[in-house]
TrEMBL record:
Biological processes, Gene Ontology terms: regulation of glutamine family amino acid metabolic process
All copies of domain PII-uridylyltransferase/Glutamine-synthetase adenylyltransferase, residue ranges: 335-481, 849-983
Encoding gene, per UniProt annotation: glnE
Family recorded in the similarity comment: Belongs to the GlnE family.
KW Magnesium (keyword) present: yes
Keyword match Nucleotidyltransferase: yes
Cofactor(s) this protein requires: Mg(2+)
Catalytic activity, EC: 2.7.7.89, 2.7.7.42
Cross-referenced NCBIfam families: PRK14109.1
Protein name per the record: Bifunctional glutamine synthetase adenylyltransferase/adenylyl-removing enzyme
GO terms, molecular function: [glutamate-ammonia-ligase] adenylyltransferase activity; [glutamine synthetase]-adenylyl-L-tyrosine phosphorylase activity; ATP binding; magnesium ion binding
Matching CDD domains: NT_GlnE_GlnD_like
Superkingdom of origin: Bacteria
InterPro entries membership: GlnE (IPR023057), GlnE_rpt_dom (IPR005190), NT_sf (IPR043519), PII_UdlTrfase/GS_AdlTrfase (IPR013546)
Length: 991
């Protein structure tokens, strides 16, 4: 039987080759790639990341080669490796394609069995080229060509597997070779410049220290090369010559190879470009910041005087590994983390490979921090590259081995994408293409070795992998710090000794911001040592929770509060489920617990508020509340109880829940200060109404109540401007019912008012409600309750200037509203008299204010930072506003308002003072009110004095919503605003 004829391979059409440009077939014909002999070559071309780009480059290359094209054409038919390398480079990098076309004979570098030269061989190659140069300007073109050729060879080996079945070049090899190439290039530049500057004279000893990725031997294809220059000659002449050499070397390198950045040197760009070794040592011993020691972790001699470079490393490295003991280590590390996160605009975070969430910087920062923390006690961590450091941390038990392997894989994947993006145009970039740019994303997928997997094409595989890797980095970033801590707690409980030691765990917690690491470990043991299910859930939750806590002002207090909440809610399955399933709930709760001493106690008795930390369809549930409806519910709930004690307890329970909700929303930046004050006032009014109703019911005889009672709000309550630490200033007014003796009515009303005050002021699970009636006629010496007629007679005959001023904020808040309204009409005659108040009254108000300033400030208080009585504080602003009301309200009805801010608006509309002054007073009032509220939230008790610099002030800054939580900046801003407002007060109030 005859053998069947061998089937000849079929020549593929341009469509099957993935070529879409109209001229593709003509280009193939022009190259002669239209015969059966070219089938395999064409299939290789089709596997290039961008086949059309590769084909266009080949056409241009053939034109550049001219008669020599046939040699390359023939080689491509025979050398499969050459095809893979050439098509991969041309289909991935427009810039390298242009370079090859400009230097067409360089294709020979990609043919045959090629390998990467060693660092010594690279140095020899570049030195040989440098020594040919007769001047710096003439050296640039050949050195640039040499450098691009070496980058092209590396890229060809790195990319070849995308086209042919060539071995994938490990990421570490790529980074190391690029760093070695940079060393050789720097050495060549130094060689050329030294000969140019010094001629036949002596060359000063100068060492180039590589920093950053070059120092760690993990350089990108396109990156600035960070360096520090160190000299050995301290003489003026020697240092001057070395500085000139360094500057000209940087310029030559920028023209021929890459940008050289010396900004990591002492004092940054403002510092000397070149320093002696002794000068470097002195700087790092006295002035260096934490980030500068972190940068030194990657320092490595790269070029120049090797012995001097070695002495530099030997002198400075011991300082690096003790940096974590510096007093400012923790706050500086936290500040660095926040700065990195804020560098990237929100709109591009998902595209940023380096600085975005779950990006390269997350990995690098975490690894370097762990090295700094544990490196003093473990020399195995003294490695520069991120990949090597991850391996060392895993081996040492500082992170889990699986976590180290997974994070290494994610890091190398992200660096691979970074390399591919940079190769395209040899431009420095870390930005993924726009999500809807499918062509760019498809090119990237092919360049990054993505293959269809049956469910997705290469583009789909890339998108899925990006999501998976970003999630993994974000998850491991928190787990990296805290999972080993939890494991060390469990091992200590079981008496095991594997993994991180207790001492190492304490060091790590201290570096992450915990001032009491031993207590923190105790809390972790308690949290993870409960029932099997709870312990497992806590083990899963705690790495992320602890990470969020570490970024709060007081992680120690936050962790203790979380432990107390977890113990209190041990039987409530919803609690841990909400933290596990609702990321927003967990993150917001940690922020609140680590910032406030006020809210955790409220949450202990009103834990259901935690469920409002979740997002609802209309935004955060904490804000999706009808405050008027809540007030009505509070009054109705109390009314269900006949016993006034139980009724008031019910009202306070709902108040406690509302306090927790309002304070939580405030701390999380969901409510502005005016909304906070209004909601606190609304709640206070509801509690007063509920308590008054309950006491009246309990004290009403069968014949009915002897009198009507109204509660008039004064001060901040009357102005609708209550803060967390405010008392409720009130007046009680009554009116006998028909047929009731006035004395009997007043006596009964007195009993009701006394019981309201005493029962609301009883300490409980929530802050007590202090009802203050000291603004009544005759102060504490006068009767607690008066009839409306008695008030009218008193104010008409005896009202003192301070009492007239106090009435400016009188407003009915509870009880009989009709009686309250008549009280206000009566008060109008006193506070807004026809013709205005007398000049003597105005003068007396000014005298009283001077006395308040001199006598009321607490002993030891700082008048610059006392939010109530201090310079430009609340009292200054409010007295100034009230004085203008006293002077002009009789002829300007718009000034008949009890709110400070509304009155300021009316004063501005009436042009009584300049608009700029209005804004200064408004800013000061809002700033002081916000700071005063923040003080209560942080300290858990009423206080008016801002603390000095430190953790407490930072916490107040965070609670007040100050950017970065920088207490120093917050305090500077407060002082600036109140100082300007005080100038306005002195001018307007002082007349």
């Amino acid at each position: 039987m005859a053998k069947p004829a061998t089937q000849r391979p079929k020549l593929p059409g341009v469509g099957r080759l993935g070529l879409v440009e109209p001229q593709a077939q003509a280009d193939l014909n022009g190259l002669g790639w239209n015969t059966d002999a070219h089938v395999e070559l064409l299939w290789s071309l089709s596997r290039a990341p961008d086949a059309d780009t590769a084909l266009r480059a080949v056409v241009r290359l053939s034109e550049a080669l001219g008669d020599d094209w046939h040699e390359l054409d023939s080689a491509l038919l025979k050398d499969r490796s050459l095809r893979g390398r050439l098509f991969a480079v041309l289909g991935s990098s427009l810039a390298l394609g242009d370079h090859l076309i400009a230097n067409p004979d360089s294709w020979h570098l990609l043919a045959g069995n090629i390998s990467l030269p060693s660092p010594r061989e690279l140095a020899e190659i570049f030195t040989e080229e440098a020594e040919k140069a007769t001047g710096a300007a003439l050296a640039v073109p050949p050195l640039r060509t040499l450098y691009r050729n070496r980058v092209m060879v590396l890229a060809a080996l790195d990319l070849a597997s995308t086209v042919e079945n060539e071995p994938v070049l490990p990421f570490t090899i790529v980074g190391e070779h690029l760093s070695d190439l940079a060393d050789a290039a720097l050495g060549a530049a130094l060689n050329v410049v030294s000969r140019s500057v010094c001629g036949d004279g002596p060359v000063p000893a100068l060492s180039v220290i590589a920093m950053g990725k070059c120092g760690a031997r993990e350089l990108n294809y396109v990156s600035d090369v960070d360096v520090i220059f160190v000299a050995d000659d301290g003489s003026h002449a020697g240092l001057g010559t070395a500085t000139r050499i360094a500057g000209e070397m940087m310029r030559l390198a920028a023209d021929a190879f890459f940008e050289v950045d010396a900004a990591l040197r002492p004092e940054g760009k403002q510092g000397q470009l070149v320093r002696t070794l002794d000068s470097h040592i002195a700087y790092y011993e006295r002035w260096a910041k934490t980030w500068e020691f972190q940068a030194l972790m990657k320092a490595r001699p790269a070029a120049g005087d090797e012995e001097l470079g070695a002495r530099y490393i030997e002198a400075l490295m011991p300082m690096v590994w003790t940096a974590c003991e510096r007093d400012d280590f923790v706050p500086e590390v936290q500040a660095m983390r926040r700065r990195v996160e804020e560098l990237v605009p929100a709109g591009v975070r998902t595209r940023e490979l380096k600085l975005g969430s779950g990006g390269l910087r997350d990995v690098e920062f975490a690894v370097q921090l762990l090295q700094l923390v544990h490196g003093r006690n473990d020399d195995e961590l003294h490695v520069a590259s991120t990949v090597n450091a991850l391996a060392a941390l895993g081996t040492g038990g500082y992170i889990g081995r699986d976590d180290a392997a997974n994070l290494t894989a994610s890091y190398e994947f992200l660096r691979l994408l970074e390399h591919r993006l940079q190769l395209q145009r040899l431009k420095r970039t870390h930005m993924l293409p726009e999500a809807d740019d499918e062509e760019a994303m498809r090119w990237l997928a092919r360049a990054a070795h993505m293959r269809p997997d049956g469910r997705h094409d290469a583009l789909g595989v890339l998108r899925e992998e990006l999501k998976r890797q970003s999630r993994r980095v974000s998850r491991l970033h928190a787990k990296l710090f805290y999972q080993p801590l939890l494991e060390s707690v469990g091992q200590a409980t079981l008496g095991l000794s594997d993994g991180m030691s207790t001492a190492s765990a304490e060091r790590q917690l201290a570096a992450l911001g915990y001032e009491g690491p031993q207590s923190a470990l105790t809390h972790l043991a308690a949290l993870t040592g409960g029932t099997a299910r709870r312990g497992r859930v806590q083990q899963v939750l705690l790495p992320t929770l602890l990470d969020w806590l570490s970024d709060t002002p007081d992680p120690d207090a936050g962790l203790l509060a979380y432990r107390r909440l977890s113990d209190e809610l041990a039987d409530q399955r919803w609690f841990l489920a909400a933290l596990r399933d609702e990321g927003a709930v967990a993150k917001r709760l940690m922020h609140v617990l680590g910032t406030s001493a006020y809210v955790p106690d409220l949450l202990m008795h009103a834990p259901e508020v935690i469920q409002l930390y979740a997002d609802g369809p209309n935004g955060p549930k904490l804000c999706d509340v009808d405050t008027e409806g809540v007030a009505r519910s509070l009054v109705a709930s109390a009314a269900r109880h006949g016993d006034p004690l139980r009724a008031i307890a019910a009202a306070r329970s709902l108040r406690r829940r509302e306090l927790a909700r309002i304070a939580s929303a405030d701390l999380l930046g969901m409510l502005d200060v005016t909304a906070v004050c209004k909601q606190l006032t609304s709640m206070w009014v509801a509690v007063l109404q509920a308590a008054l109703d309950a006491v009246i019911r309990a004290n009403t005889p069968q014949a009915g109540p002897p009198a009507r009672i109204a509660v008039i709000g004064m001060g901040r309550l009357g102005g609708g401007e209550l803060g967390y630490g405010s008392d409720a200033d009130v007046l009680f007014v009554c009116e006998p019912h028909a047929g009731v003796e006035e004395s009997a009515a007043v006596k009964w009303s007195q009993t009701v008012a006394e019981q309201v005050r005493s029962r609301l002021g009883t300490p409980g699970a929530d802050p007590p409600l202090d009802v203050d009636a000291n603004l009544r006629p005759e102060g504490r010496s006068g009767p607690l309750v008066r009839t409306l007629a008695s008030y009218a007679a008193y104010y008409e005959q005896w009202a003192q200037p301070w009492e007239v001023q106090a009435l400016l904020r009188a407003h009915r808040v509870a009880g009989d509203l009709e009686l309250g309204e008549r009280f206000l009409l009566m008060a109008d005659k006193t506070r807004y008299p026809e013709g205005g108040v007398s000049a003597e009254t105005v003068q007396e108000i000014r005298r009283i204010k001077a006395r308040v300033d001199a006598e009321r400030l607490p002993r030891g208080a700082d008048p610059n930072t006392h939010t109530k009585l201090g310079r430009g504080g609340l009292t200054d602003i409010e007295w100034t506003v009230q004085l203008l009301q006293l002077r002009y309200a009789h002829k300007m009805p718009a000034l008949h308002t009890t709110s400070t801010l509304d009155t300021l608006d009316a004063i501005g509309a009436a042009e009584l003072i300049a608009e700029g002054d209005i804004e200064l007073l408004r800013d000061a009032w809002l700033t002081a009110t916000r700071a005063r509220n923040a003080l209560v939230l942080v300290r858990g008790k009423p206080t008016d004095q801002l603390p000095g610099p430190g953790r407490l002030l930072n916490a107040v800054a965070v609670a007040a919503g100050w950017r970065d939580g920088d207490g120093g900046e917050f305090l500077d801003n407060y002082l600036r605003i109140t100082r300007r407002a005080k100038a306005v007060v002195l001018r307007i109030f002082g007349g």
